[in-house]
Amino acid sequence: MSLHPKPCPTAHPPAHGPSRRTLLAAGLGALATPALRAQGTYPIKPITIIVPYPAGGASDIGARMLSTELGKVLGQSVVVDNVGGAGGALGVQKLLRSVADGHTLLYGSLSETVLVPLINPAANYKLEDLSAIAFAGATPAAFVTRPDFPANSMAELLELARRNPGKFSYGSPGIGTFQHLVAETVKLKSGTFMLHIPYRGGGNIMTDVVAGQIDVGVTTAPNVVGLVAQGRVKVLGVTSAARLPVLPNVPSLGETPPLKGMDLQTWGMIFGPKGVPEAVQQKLNAAINAILMQPGMVEQRRKLGSTLDATLTPAQAQAFVLRERDTYRPAASRVKPE
Predict the structure, then answer these.
(1) How many of the other CB atoms lie within 10 Å of CB of 93?
(2) Measured CA distances, 84 to 89, 143, 170 (Å)
(3) What does the pLDDT read at residue 40?
(4) Domain final position from 210, 235, 259
(5) Residue 201 confidence (pLDDT)
(6) How many CB atoms lie under 10 A from the CB of residue 243?
(7) Within 10 A of 338 (CB to CB), how many other CB atoms are there?
């Protein structure tokens, strides 16, 4: 609650410099933190959304879909800052060095916010260092290969891998990411071995799959839909419980006997550093939720293979990511930093 002094009808400007009241007010204004000032006037400057991967990946696509509309709603420009590396950890670390006033945000995913700190203590942050502000949707991973690869389904890929241990390679966006964990779970359930090649982001994986530098890419569905339409890659399977409407001919992993029942999806979430004022979180949450439910945004998500069944409040979003950590903690304990 802001306090305003009552006007005094007999007050006159001081004859010899500012009054004690003026000096006191100026001093209080200088002491106020950016986060405190932002509660009443947010946003007061351009907003940056950090994407913890290079341009072209699913997180980058989601952030750019959101940024233009968010700028219109909030009346400030919103820029996307791609900070790839260390499985997304470098982007999170940059967020945590920012002022907690809502002007620097992260378009985060399960990988770098939940899994990386579970797996790699050297990341030097934990989930509690972040404020979950708005849920942006869920998407499965996809196992993708080049058109001439000698397997047309996950069952055929696993059979090839069984007969040729270590011959085939797969790429993920980095050690400890969701895609890495999914692939290792598939290997564990099927008793197969493929060499893991960690990358800095999903866009680079697709480039190397198309070029034949790696055999299989494990990436999120939005990264592959356009390439499939162009005939540049083929998808062997997706990790959701059901097939995706945008890829109706691609089976879910649950349809492959050794992987029956698998339903693993990552998600997009807008985070701030811990300490973003509640009023700022609520304003951002309301704006983002309204944008995400616009018909045009719903259609874009459908085309990309992403879903958003319901929006969440900041409190619900924070509870959700804490539950996700509990869900993945046992599997994450089996993955060691390389």
Answers:
(1) 19
(2) 8, 22, 19
(3) 56
(4) 259
(5) 67
(6) 17
(7) 9
Q: How far apart are CA 57 and CA 62, in angstroms?
A: 9
* pLDDT-flagged residues of the chain (< 70): 1-40, 201-203, 338
Tell which of 228, 259, 290 closes a domain.
Answer: 259
Q: Please tell me whether residues 93 and 47 are part of one structural domain.
A: yes
From 141, 124, 181, select the one nearest 327 (Cα to Cα): 181
Q: Which residues 6+ apart lie within 8 Å of 217 measured at CB?
A: 143, 144, 145, 170, 171, 202, 205, 206, 208, 209, 224, 233
Q: Look-up: residue for tokens 């969701």?
A: 178
Q: Cβ distance 122 to 290 under 8 Å? A: no
173/169 Cα distance (integer angstroms): 14
Q: What is the pLDDT of residues 216-264, one digit of tens each?
A: 999 988 889 889 999 999 999 999 888 898 999 999 988 888 898 888 9
* Amino acid 338: pLDDT: 63
Tokens of 231: 């005939």
Q: How far apart are the first and last CA of the chain?
A: 51
Specify the pTM: 0.77
- Which residues, 6 or more positions from 67, have their beta carbon under 8 angstroms from its beta carbon? 49, 78, 79, 80
Instruction: Say yes or no: 324 and 220 in one domain.
Output: no
Domain that holds residue 209: 140-259
- Whether a cis peptide bond, with omega within 30° of 0, leads into 9 is no
198: exposed, middle or buried (C-beta count within 10 Å: 0-12, 13-18, 19+)?
A: middle
90 and 189: one domain?
no
